[in-house]
Each structure stands twice: as structure tokens, then as C-alpha cells.
What we know:
homodimer, Rossmann fold, 2 domains, seven-stranded parallel β-sheet
Amino acid sequence: MDEAFIENLLARDIRATARLLRWIDDGIKEARQTLKRLYAHTGKANIIGITGNPGAGKSTLTDQLITMFRKRGKTVAVVAIDPSSPFSGGAILGDRIRMQDHSLDEGVFIRSFATRGHLGGLTNTTTDVVHALDAIGWDVILVETVGVGQDEVEVQRLAHTTLVVMTPGMGDEIQAIKAGILEIADVFVVNKADRDGADRTVRELEQMLDLGHGAKPTLGEILHHGGKVDLEGKTEQSRIAPEKWVPRIIKTVALRGEGMDELFEAMDDHMVEYQKACENASFVEARLKQEFLEIYRRTLLNRGWNYLMSEDHIKGIIDRLKDRSSDPYSLAEQAIEALGKQQD
Amino acid sequence: MDEAFIENLLARDIRATARLLRWIDDGIKEARQTLKRLYAHTGKANIIGITGNPGAGKSTLTDQLITMFRKRGKTVAVVAIDPSSPFSGGAILGDRIRMQDHSLDEGVFIRSFATRGHLGGLTNTTTDVVHALDAIGWDVILVETVGVGQDEVEVQRLAHTTLVVMTPGMGDEIQAIKAGILEIADVFVVNKADRDGADRTVRELEQMLDLGHGAKPTLGEILHHGGKVDLEGKTEQSRIAPEKWVPRIIKTVALRGEGMDELFEAMDDHMVEYQKACENASFVEARLKQEFLEIYRRTLLNRGWNYLMSEDHIKGIIDRLKDRSSDPYSLAEQAIEALGKQQD
């Protein structure tokens, strides 16, 4: 790895950063080599997840958050996961263009990534992108996703604070999503709160929180949660978040900047709780473990796949299955033993 | 492995079978050893997937299918994946009890398995259970699941023929599910067809098929589909099914056995197409590859997990992450090299 390149990155050079993110997105091995070098510099950024349905006004809110963090003198990087699915599309292009109001500000960096499939858009590279931006020295990293399924679960694992953005009159939707999205919210943002039904939406959220639907598992529950699900069933992973935090509900009209001070206050309060939680070694270890498991899982699957594809190993395996001279269980084990010996 | 146990299994001994399925469900290593021994005997069963929303009447239909296959002199094993999620619950217990009408028939074997989580209920063990029952010599294996997400994608990969069960008046739901479930259906069963709206549901399905929403990718597309998604993004895997088959739509009233002859005819016709497709070596290889990749993926993740948990390797890793003396990328690679050397 080129030392000058690493130095450029750590000096927040935009072109070097753009190149690294392209490498990560393309999945080439230079990305991984660079990430290894950068890792020691991670752990300083404040990572904030922003999720919610299309049309909830996430991009406008992100825009406001950028402005407010900039006023505090913080540099802000935005990682926007653009849905490629026809189901969750929206005014993506328009939003991105609007955000380019910040494009002359060197303290703002915005990158959109396409999701890889119609599920689990964050699986592959978002963790790496966030680690990279963290190491490079961006103070705040906003990770914006559309709220459809697995995405949120991935976001919340990265983020210190997660905002779930809703709009008035989403009562039915709240019912539908409560199992997933409510569990990950540190702050509910009822955006477009000048519309009819804002108070009703707030009340419904309050009721749900009272009923414990938004209750996070305790750290004890998480630590005992282990088992194979940690690698197998990614969606099963519990969130590692401060135990004592009760999710806040904030009304905003992001387009006019209304409610932003209240939102910021809630976010600050949450970070205080988060930092308190970090005084507990078990909490920090659980976060590191979760982070490691995700990278480990991806590395296992990538190396496993690369092995099969190299020297046409897969063809030999299928031939042996075809004449039933071996079985898939033994062949899988043999492949794993062999790939352990292979250099990536 | 005890030879007598294998012999008992191959003689379709019920107690030996029950024991093996328990081993598989518990994930103990004897299960895997037995599956290795049994694999050479697989490939004879006719595997039929039955999926659809709760309340669609899948269990009643399954009941009828059992009766009809029995009349043909076929032995029938039923693998029912019981949803543990509160969202997809139903009259499970009642259904199962009713099915016990067949409990005195030695040619029928019924087992329910709980899903592991609210997504991907089939991921862990259903493939193994079906392989086992196939090897043991059950002629027909009916795999019944509730149609919510990932489950269907798993079922359809195992099944030769997949039935998607609907009820009249599910128009809106059809819209919602078309992306996933329609792609996997070989036969649509509009059950409870004595209710209002049956013909409309049939028409809507027909329109959708005309519009190509139910179109399956061609084999060429599948073979070129490769890439990392095969291990990473399970939901991306295309279905490997006969190209020329146009999904049929059959109206039934399963409770009274109406429409069952027509359904059977459609299923028979589909199997003829399936067998024709098997004359193409690429088709057979693609099926074997998909089957292998699923087992390989699970083996990778299981061994990967077992390694981390053995001798407290995970603790050492977290310690090194905590003091940032290494990085998760390097530690993941080192773990993979080490696990390759370890015996399972």
C-alpha cells in the first residue's frame, strides 16, 4: 500500500477518499488492504442513522442536519443508500441535487450508493464505507436509508443514534412496521408535522412505546443472546444500545427547519446516554463483537466464493455430485479446509 | 456411524427417522455424518412446495394431496414449517391435529418444524430434512410453508413443483406479493373458490402472467447470473425451473375435494416438463450447484462460528480490537486460515 495514499486519506483529501470509496464499492482487494491500514484511526466519528419510508422527508431532514452540524463546526459526511428497487424509488435525484447546496463546502462530503439487491442493501459495503470515513476524520457520518426491511437493522448496528422518520397519518404503517423499525429508533421524527394527524401519530407512537413495543432488549439479554444466529440469521441480531434510553418523539417540519432544535437536543441527550453506556466494558465489547461478526461473515462468504470460482473448483464439485461419488456435506468441508490454506 | 442405524433409516423405520430429524433440528454433528452416508440415496423423491398466506387453506390442501398420492400408491412425507412469528400464526395446531387422520397410515409421515426467526425459517434445516426423507425413500415430500418473504425462495429451490395457494379477493395482496411469490409458482391454486371473487382473482393472475410478472428467467440468464450474490445475497438467487412451463391457475375447494383432479393434472404436466428439462445437463448442474451452494454457505457459517466460540478465540479477537492492536479485516482472515486447519 502506497504510504502517500494513506497520508492523503488521513488529510481528508477528497480525491483519495473518492478513490477508496470506489474501490470499496467495486469490492477490489486494495480496498481491504487500505481498510486494514486505516482501522487504528477509527472510533472517533459520531455515526447517525436516518431511516424511514420513501416520502417521509429524510433527505430534507439530512440537509437540515448537515447545516446544523456545520454551525457547530463539525465536518459532515453523508452516506445515502439509494434504493434500486422499483418499490422504494423516490425523488432521489432531486433530493441529491438539492443537497448539492453544500457542494462548495469542503466540510461536507456526500456519496450515494446503489443497493445491491431489493433486500439487504447495506450488507456489502456500507460498514466499510463508514469505517473509512470515520478513520479519514469526518466528525459526523449520516447514514441515510429507505426503511424497507433489513436495511434498518444494518444501519442501527453501525449508528450510535438512529432516527426513524415518519409522517402524519401513517397509523396503519406504524402497525405494519412496529416489529422492526420501532425497535431500532432512538428518536422518532414525525416530519411534515404541519399536516393533519401529526398529533395522532405522536399519540400512537407514545402508546406503542408505553406498551413496550419499542422496548430494547437489555444488555444482559443481548449478551446471552449468542448462538449460531449471530452468523446465520443476521436479522436476529439484537441491537446494542444504551439500556436506559427511552425513545423520544419529535415533531419537525424539516422543509422550514421547524423542530430542529428540539431534535438536536434529543440527539445530544442520546449521545450522553450512549457515552455513559460506553463506560461499561461489556457494552463496548458487545459493539466490537457485532462489528467483527459482520466483517467476519462477509470475509467468510467472499473467500468461500472466491475459492469455488478459482481453478474451476466448483466444476469438480458438481461433477462429483452428479455421479454421486461424494456428497455436498463432505465436499463443503473439503473446500473450507482448502480455502483456509489459500491466500486471498 | 452405526451401520444398523443407517439400515433402519433406509428401511423407512419411523423411530430411526424421527431420531435423525431431531438430530438435524438440534444441529448436532451426528446429523451431518448421517446425511453424508445417506446422500448417495437421494434424488428419487418428488418434492412439492406448498406456500401461501395464513388462512389460504394450505393444510387442507396438503391433506387432500396426501390422500390422492396415497391412492396412487405413493408414500408421502410432509414437512410443515410452523411459523413462530406472531404475524403469521394461524390455526396451526388444529390443522396438524386434523392431518393426524393419516396417523394410522404407515405410508404417511408428518413433521412440523418451528421457524428459527421471523425471516428465513427454512434456512437452517429444511434442506437437510428433505434430503434425509428423500434418501430414506419417501416417494413424495410435501414442504408446506407460510408465504412471508424468504421462506418461499428457499422452498422453491428445493421443490420440483411449487404450488402457491391463494383465496378469492386477495387482489391487493397479489399486487404486494407479485415480486416474490409469483416468480416461484408453477401452479397457482385459487382455493375456497366457492367464495365471491374467485373468478376475479383468476383474471388478475392471468393478467399478471400475461404481463410477464410471473415470468421466470431463462436458464441462460441463470447460468450467467453467477457472482458473489450466490453466497451473499440469498434472495437474489434465481429459480432453476423448466423454461417452457407457463404457470397454471387452478380453482379448488380443498375442504370438499373440488378441483383436486385438475390440480393433479397440472402437477403431472409440470413434472413432465421438469423431467424434460433434466435431459439438459446444464439444468441438472445448475440445480446441483444451487443445492451445493446452500449447504456450503451454511457449513462456512457454522464452522466459522464454531471456531470463534472454541477456546474463546472471540475473546482474544475482541481484546485486540479493543486496544486497536489489530483490525477486524486481518483478524477475520487469520480466523479463516485457522478454522480451515481445525477438524469439525
